[in-house]
């Protein structure tokens, strides 16, 4: 899918880096405030992923009244243009985080999100389908930016021993935002011809709150020390975040990590494709990202109300059932936290892909047997929920994590950038093609995704090494043999 809880690993040592000697640190009010302000960007991402689902009929009515093109095709463009914006937002964030600082980059992005929300919210009043498309594109840039900037900031201010836990807050924020968008889209709230512009325009809320909160949050000490080269300000910020002046070990460790990074050979994107020892893990990482998107998850996230109607539910019941999709992702984000290091990345990825394959087959069977059979309609919804649950087990987060664990510091930044671009492009493809595929294939619409899931499962089984409890040196050595 779209979730990037570990994209911050691009900028830190990653989960396999050497043990740190930093001060123990702990949870403080300043830390919780800063994290809360940052993850509003991830909540925004989840909200705008889930919110477009329920109001499809009303948006198509609006398109039909103001545009001559086929409404379902224009709706596909409205959905998928979000991912095009994401493809721009990710690299833009990488540049601005280093040139403007973490905090200022997040501030600029929050202001930009307000503009995108305004375009969507006022599109009906202006009777402009173009405004709606532009708004989705702008909010896509905002969300793509957030999926890089928010995890980076959170990882850099969290104590080392708590980085994993705080990293999952990004994932939880995505699930919570998605659920909020789906709840607000039901008929009795904003799921109507009159309510949908306000529904989409509510994206202004997390952006505005973030804009208000961020000026009072500290800048990342890592940025101040290693990019701005202002050790005094870094100490002040770190002291505020940790609630203690005992930050000497953490400052020293940042210096040592920076020195090690400078001594390591740097690799460009071109080097990843031309160097065999880098090309193999890059291909593995790309396939993991493709498995996240081309397994069909965004067909469910963007169009689950359409899928549930196809399975025999009324439009009102379908919009209620959609809420379960976001809720399951939120719950699975919690469940996957202890499993990640206990069972390992490879095991969870295989389990997730295998479960998605099984339930995509069962979903297809249910589509063929629901007519005059209320029981099968219910099972179709249950199978869809279980499909989403298995996605949450591994494929939702592991593709983002795995690239950071397959590459050393010198190649990690380029590799994660390639992975992000592939992920957003595949997101765009699924968003644009699902409705035409559904119209062409009917009840067979999930068969292509099932075939791809089988291919991804076999590839993962044959090629993906387990990275749990291995150093980066041990993992990269596998590809040099």
From TrEMBL:
UniProt-annotated location(s): Cell membrane
| GO CC annotation, single | plasma membrane
Domain (Major facilitator superfamily (MFS) profile) ranges: 34-468
Q: Where is this region: Disordered?
A: 1-23
GO MF term set: fructose transmembrane transporter activity
**Any one Pfam family match given in the protein's UniProt record, by short name:** Sugar_tr
Keyword Protein transport appears in the UniProt entry: no
Q: Where is the composition biased (Polar residues)?
A: 1-10
- What keywords would UniProt list here? Cell membrane, Glycoprotein, Membrane, Transmembrane, Transmembrane helix, Transport
List the InterPro entries hit by this protein, alphabetically. Answer: GLUT (IPR045263), MFS_dom (IPR020846), MFS_sugar_transport-like (IPR005828), MFS_trans_sf (IPR036259), Sugar/inositol_transpt (IPR003663), Sugar_transporter_CS (IPR005829)
User: Where does the chain cross the membrane?
Assistant: 30-52, 72-94, 106-127, 133-154, 166-190, 196-216, 318-338, 350-370, 376-402, 414-435, 441-462
Topology in the lipid bilayer is annotated as: Multi-pass membrane protein
Biological process according to GO: fructose import across plasma membrane
Return the NCBIfam families for the record. SP
What family does this belong to? Answer: Belongs to the major facilitator superfamily. Sugar transporter (TC 2.A.1.1) family.
* Protein name (record): Major facilitator superfamily (MFS) profile domain-containing protein
What species is this protein from? Bombyx mori
Please name the taxonomic classification of the source: Eukaryota, Metazoa, Ecdysozoa, Arthropoda, Hexapoda
């Amino acid at each position: 899918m779209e979730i990037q809880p570990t994209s911050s690993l691009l900028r830190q040592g990653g989960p396999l880096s050497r043990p740190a000697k930093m001060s123990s640190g702990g949870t403080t009010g300043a830390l919780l405030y800063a994290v809360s302000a940052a993850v509003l960007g991830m909540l925004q991402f989840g909200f705008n992923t889930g919110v477009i689902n329920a109001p499809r009929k009303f948006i198509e009515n609006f398109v039909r009244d103001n545009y001559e093109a086929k409404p379902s095709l224009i709706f596909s463009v409205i959905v998928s243009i979000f991912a095009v914006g994401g493809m721009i937002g990710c690299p833009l964030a990488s540049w601005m985080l280093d040139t403007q600082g973490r905090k200022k980059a997040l501030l600029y992005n929050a202001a930009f999100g307000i503009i995108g929300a305004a375009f969507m919210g006022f599109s009906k009043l202006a009777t402009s389908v173009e405004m709606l498309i532009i708004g989705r594109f702008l909010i896509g840039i905002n969300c793509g930016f957030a999926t890089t900037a928010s995890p980076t900031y959170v990882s850099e201010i969290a104590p080392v021993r708590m980085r994993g836990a705080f990293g999952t807050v990004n994932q939880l924020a995505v699930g919570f935002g998605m659920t909020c968008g789906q709840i607000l889209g039901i008929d009795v709230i904003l799921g109507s011809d009159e309510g949908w512009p306000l529904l989409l325009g509510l994206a202004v809320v997390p952006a505005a709150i973030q804009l208000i909160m961020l000026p009072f949050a500290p800048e990342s000490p890592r940025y101040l020390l290693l990019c701005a080269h202002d050790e005094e300000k870094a100490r002040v910020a770190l002291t505020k975040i940790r609630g203690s002046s005992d930050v000497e070990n953490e400052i020293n460790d940042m210096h040592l990590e920076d020195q090690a990074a400078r001594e390591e050979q740097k690799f460009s994107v071109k080097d990843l494709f031309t160097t065999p020892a880098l090309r193999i893990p890059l291909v593995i990482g790309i396939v993991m990202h493709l498995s996240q998107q081309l397994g069909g998850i965004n067909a469910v996230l963007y169009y689950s109300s359409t899928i549930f109607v196809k399975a025999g539910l009324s439009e009102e019941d379908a919009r209620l059932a959609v809420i379960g999709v976001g809720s399951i992702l939120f719950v699975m984000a919690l469940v996957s936290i202890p499993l990640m290091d206990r069972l390992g990345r490879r095991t969870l990825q295989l389990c997730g892909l295998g479960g998605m394959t099984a339930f995509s087959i069962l979903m297809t069977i249910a589509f063929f047997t629901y007519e005059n059979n209320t029981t099968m309609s219910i099972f179709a919804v249950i199978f869809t929920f279980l499909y989403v649950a298995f996605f949450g087990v591994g494929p939702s987060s592991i593709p983002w994590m795995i690239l950071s664990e397959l590459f050393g510091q010198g190649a990690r930044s380029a590799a994660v950038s390639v992975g992000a671009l592939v992920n957003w492009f595949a997101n765009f493809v699924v968003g644009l093609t699902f409705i035409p595929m559904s119209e062409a294939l009917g009840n067979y619409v999930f068969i292509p995704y099932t075939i791809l899931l089988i291919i991804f499962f076999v590839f993962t089984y044959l090629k993906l090494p387990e990275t749990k409890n291995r150093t980066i040196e041990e993992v990269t050595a596998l590809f040099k043999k």
